[in-house]
């Protein structure tokens, strides 16, 4: 479809016949993301509320299809890149985000920690350094006043507001740590999400755990066992050893489903559930 044909299609979107509108919308949606700039331009030039609403609906469907495609591709071929998976989730709500801003913010946090990092530091000393950089200097904290807000699950908003939920804070913490070659990885605890500092000499062994929602509090294995006991769950590897990146992204999406249900946004809850279903490892 050339530019003139595209503009002609868009100009007909205010047709009162809904069947004609849906036919036009399907053609535009099937054309993919390249038509979005033209739709946005038409929205800006129009004062017709009906047309603006229809353009917004079409743009959202195009962008949602792109998120679905990106997420499926990440699941198949790029799971090693946790940040990319989280940015794809971000695109669901913030399609026009300049993602380099997130990457640059993480790189700056890494640099700030690297400047103080010394080879002879013990694992506990390294965690204390990260805690100081992330919680004291940068100001990250758990969002205890609006715990269920959807924004707590979007990386860009957590870095902007400096408030998040356990898994978003843990993702930032581990992304910074791993860029410094510090072996800190996610632990997919029920009802909570923490981190584990792994033994560099024996990568399968956990040295200790880190409660990021409580400003990097160090936890012992007994603490995790006690927590699981309270939930009547066994101390299995599923809950005590690091999970993979797909499990982390799925946990973020599950949190979003619950968040949108909490704020009674059933349309977004339904869409995020679709994304969650697409990441099913089965």
UniProtKB/TrEMBL annotation:
Annotated Protein SirB1 N-terminal domain residues: 101-254
InterPro entries according to UniProt: SirB1_N
Domain of life: Bacteria
PANTHER family for the chain: F-BOX ONLY PROTEIN 21, SI:DKEY-261L7.2
Family: Belongs to the UPF0162 family.
Designated name of the protein: Regulator of sirC expression, contains transglutaminase-like and TPR domains
């Amino acid at each position: 479809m050339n530019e003139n044909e595209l503009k002609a299609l868009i100009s007909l979107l205010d047709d009162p016949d809904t069947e004609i509108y849906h036919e036009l919308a399907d053609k535009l949606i099937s054309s993919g993301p390249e038509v979005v700039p033209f739709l946005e331009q038409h929205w800006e030039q129009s004062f017709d509320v009906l047309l603006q609403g229809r353009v917004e609906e079409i743009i959202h469907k195009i962008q949602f299809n792109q998120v679905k495609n990106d997420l499926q591709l990440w699941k198949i071929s790029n799971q090693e890149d946790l940040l990319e998976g989280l940015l794809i989730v971000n695109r669901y709500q913030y399609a026009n985000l300049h993602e380099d801003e997130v990457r640059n913010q993480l790189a700056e946090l890494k640099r700030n920690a690297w400047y103080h990092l010394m080879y002879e530091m013990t694992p506990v000393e390294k965690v204390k350094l990260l805690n100081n950089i992330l919680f004291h200097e940068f100001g990250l904290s758990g969002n205890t006043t609006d715990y269920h807000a959807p924004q707590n699950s979007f990386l860009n908003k957590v870095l902007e507001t400096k408030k998040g939920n356990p898994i978003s804070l843990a993702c930032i913490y581990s992304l910074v740590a791993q860029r410094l070659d510090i072996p800190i990885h996610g632990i997919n605890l029920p009802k909570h999400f923490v981190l584990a500092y792994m033994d560099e000499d024996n990568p399968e062994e956990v040295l200790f755990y880190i409660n990021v929602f409580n400003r990097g509090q160090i936890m012992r294995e007994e603490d995790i066992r006690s927590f699981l006991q309270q939930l009547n769950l066994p101390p299995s590897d599923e809950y005590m050893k690091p999970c993979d990146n797909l499990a982390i992204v799925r946990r973020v999406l599950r949190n979003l489903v619950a968040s949108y249900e909490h704020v009674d946004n059933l349309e977004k809850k339904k869409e995020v559930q679709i994304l969650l279903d697409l990441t099913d490892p089965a």
